[in-house]
Structure formats: C-alpha cells, structure tokens
Amino acid sequence: MSLRTQFLALLILLLLLVTTNTVLVMLLDKEGRQKHEAVDHTHEIIDESEKLYTQIVHAETGQRGYLLTQNTSYLTPYYDGIKKAKTHFLTLTKITIHQREQQEKLSQLDVLINKKFDELDLTINLVMQNSPSAIQAAIEVVQSNEGKEYMEQIRKLISEFQNIQREKLDIEMSDFQQHSLLLTYLISIQIPLLILLCVFSAVFINKKLFIPLKQLLHITEQLEKGDKPNVSIVYRHDEIGNLLKRFQRMSNIIHKRTKRLNFQAKHDHLTGALNRSDLEPHLRQAINTCSVDNKLALIFIDINKFKQLNDNYGHSIGDKVLIETAKRISSTFRADDAIYRYGGDEFIIIVENISKIEYIEPMLNHLLKSFEVCFEIEQHTFDIDLSIGVALSPDHSDDWKTLINLADKAMYNAKLSHNASYCIHGQA
Question: What's the rounded Cα separation, in Å, for the pair 260 and 245?
Fold first, then answer.
C-alpha cells in the first residue's frame, strides 16, 4: 500500500471519528435542551393552576365583602378575580392541549367554575336590588352552602390536576438528570480518546513521513560535506497540539452548557435559591446522618403580609422583594447551609452540625436583625417582617415530611404570636 493511500485512510478514519463524536454531542445537547424545556413547561402548568385557584378565591372574597358591607369597592377584586381566572383557565387549556386526561379534568373544572361564578353573580345581583327580601334571599343562597360545595370540588379537582403534573414533573426531572449524567460521561471520555488518537497519528506520521524525510536531509548534508552518512536524527512535532486545544475548547463549551442546564433545573429561576426538586433526598440524607450531639435544624420562613404587598404594588415589586429576601437569608447563614424556595413567599433552610438547641436562637436573631433594614425598591420603602418556625431532628422527628410539618406549624404559631417572630417546636 502506497504512502499516499495510507495517509488518506488515516485522514478518513480521523474525520469519521471526529464527525461522529461531534454530531453525537450536538444531538445529546439538543435533546437535553428539549428535556429542560419539558420541565419548564410542566412547571408552567402547575403555576397556572395555582394562579387559577387563587383568582377564584379572590373573586369569592370580593363577593363576601360586598355581601357583608354592600360597599361597591369589594366588587373590584370580584370582577378582577373572575377576569383573571378565565384568562388562566384559557392558558391552562392551551398548554395542556395534548394531555387528554388533563383536558377532561379541565372540562369538569369549567363546569364547576361556571356554577360557582353563577352563584356569586346571583348573590351580588340580589344585594344590588337593595330590598330586604332580596338581601335575605342572597343570605339564604350563601347559607345553603352550595357555593362552598362548589369551591371544595374545585379545590379537589385542581389538587388532582396538580398531582398528575407533579408526577409527570418527577419523571421529566429524573429523565433530564439521567441525560445530563450521560452527556457528562461522554464528555469525560472524549479527551482520553482524543489523546490516544493523537498519539497514534503522531507515531504513524512520524514513522511514515518525518523520520524518512529527516534521514534523507541528513544524508544529503553528510554527502555535501563529504562525510559518511549518519542516519541518527533528532525530530520534533507541534501540529497535533492545535487540534487537541480546539477539541478541548469544544468540550469545555459543552461542559459549561451542561453545568448551566443542571443549575437551572435545580434552582429557582427568580431568587437563585434551590428549588424543591432536591429537598426530599437532601433532607432524608441529612436526617440519616444527624444524631443527638449533631442535630439537624429545619427552619421554615414565611414573609408576613406578602400577599397584601403583591396586591397593592404588583407582582414586579413582589418578585424583587423575594429576590432581596433570598439574598439576605443567604448572607446570614453559613455557606454549607442549604436554602430552598419552598413555594410562593416561603423558604426552607436546612442547617446541619448543631450540637445544642440553644445555638439556634442566635442564628435566628442574626437573621431577623438583617431584616431590620428596610427594603428600598423602585422608590418604595418596605418594612419586611418574617415569621419563622423551627423543628429539629432527631429531637422532634426523624421523618422528613413530619419535620417540615412541625416547622410549618411552629411558623404559624410565631405568626399568631404578638411577642415573637420565631417559634421553635415544643417551646412556648
């Protein structure tokens, strides 16, 4: 086989390997983006369902306020709630168009919502007649509990709807994480494989081309000088290094992109805090490793009057309050303490390696002190208060769900208390 044929065969082999590897990485990266988009889509469906229920509650609240006071200002949240509820329902219908089971539930939900809104509209129209008999009729409609039954059915149906989406989200998250591991593994074997190819190519080219060429040049120089030819030569090569650097650069780009996708999948897009996807496994592991002398503290935080702030100043201001809250919480706790956005205006902090319960209170006081400084947002000044509940493992429970519930209850006790901003479970 001629030297030209051998070099051509080597070149074709290298091109095939590099092309196949590059195409494979690109396809996997594209698939990873699609899986991440699926996760975002499911999150959007859950968020829209929560917003739908919230607006129905707002409409009912406005109706109750109007019936009790006959103050027309309560009709504003009533009509606004109905309008936004219809908007969120249409959005839900659109983004679940390919999910038959969810479409069926939405059809049932549509019937219940219309009945609920008809009941609300009936009572308001009766009160607007401003006659004792009409007002009494409106009261009888409310006391019949028909609207309450509709609301309970709506809540139950939305809960079932969300449970289906959360199961789907768990599957999508698991699929995305497995895909990310596969992509990471592929990247990890690319560099060693490329090095082997470079070594083989260098040996082959050196043996087939450079050594004979240098030998010929050396012999020519010896002959020109009239000396006896000496075939011993010294050689060097640098061409392969450029290819390695380029491939390494490509691998770094893929690695950074994978790292960014993993971050987005595990963190709340608004605050940058961890989202709930890893809360359960993290909490299970932390509970398994804690002991009487090495406790785990679960701190449940809720922003007081956040809903009122959102209603009065808008979601844009509310989002910025959440972002600043997450920053202050993060700056207060240790770097290895895990901060999760649990939902809405609620945060959970997992603090490990605590030897005594008494060490918790200085942490909480330090956190509360950081919130003594008012929030300055878009020329508005806000005094943000927190309600904090704490539960410890193994002192209070060694079950992760129970631990969250205990901390949640302690937080509500703190919210109801007029003397304290935090409450540790089991303490008065």
Answer: 22
Whole domain around residue 86: which residue ranges?
Answer: 29-173
Number of domains in the chain: 3
In the DSSP assignment, the letter for residue 227 is: P
Q: Strand ranges (DSSP E) for 292-400?
A: 295-303, 338-343, 346-354, 375-377, 380-382, 386-393
Given 220, 243, 266, the domain boundary residue is 266
Phi then psi for 351, rounded to 5 degrees?
Answer: -115, 120
d(CA 175, CA 173): 5
145: left (phi over 0), alpha (psi -120 to 50) or beta: left
CA dist 323 and 302 (Å) reads 14
Integer Cα distance of 156 and 81 in angstroms = 19
What pLDDT, in 10s, does the model give residues 122-168? 988 988 888 888 888 888 888 888 888 988 999 999 999 999 999 98
Tokens of 6: 């051998």
Say what the pTM is: 0.44
